[in-house]
Amino acid sequence: QVQLVESGGGLVQAGGSLRLSCAASGLTFSGDIMGWFRQAPGKEREFVAAIRRTGSRTFYAEPVKGRFTISRANAKNTVDLQMNSLQPAAPAVYYCAGTASSPAEVVVASAYAYWGQGTQVPVSS
Length: 125
What we know:
The protein has strands at 3-7, 12-13, 18-25, 33-39, 46-52, 58-60, 68-72, 78-83, 92-98, 114-115, 119-121, 123-124. It is an all-beta fold. The strands form three sheets. Strands 4, 5, 6, 9, 10 and 11 form a six-stranded antiparallel β-sheet that branches. Strands 1-3-8-7 form a four-stranded antiparallel β-sheet, with no helix packed on it. Strands 2-12 form a two-stranded parallel sheet. A hairpin with a 6-residue loop joins strand 4 and strand 5 (46-52). The protein is globular and about 40 Å long.
């Protein structure tokens, strides 16, 4: 009954910035964590960042620390990912995800029960 919808993806130049948004909706959504993963062609889906829906504690993958910022929007069921200093690389699809409870680990995809359809973020040189 929970749906996650990403928005804000699109072409951005190297060194530029982009902000992604995720909105969760449905009759039930009681998970404690919302996060972002990304997946490049031929690569496994990897953790990017996560935030607690209560308390606002954040978690970041090491490669994006200092460049990306995850934050809650106006409601606990919305989350944004501000991406700065984007580098030219293989295009990646960014996925919003949410947990069904409070997992012990937030950096693995198996901890998340709900997933968005993904939004593509190609970076031009």
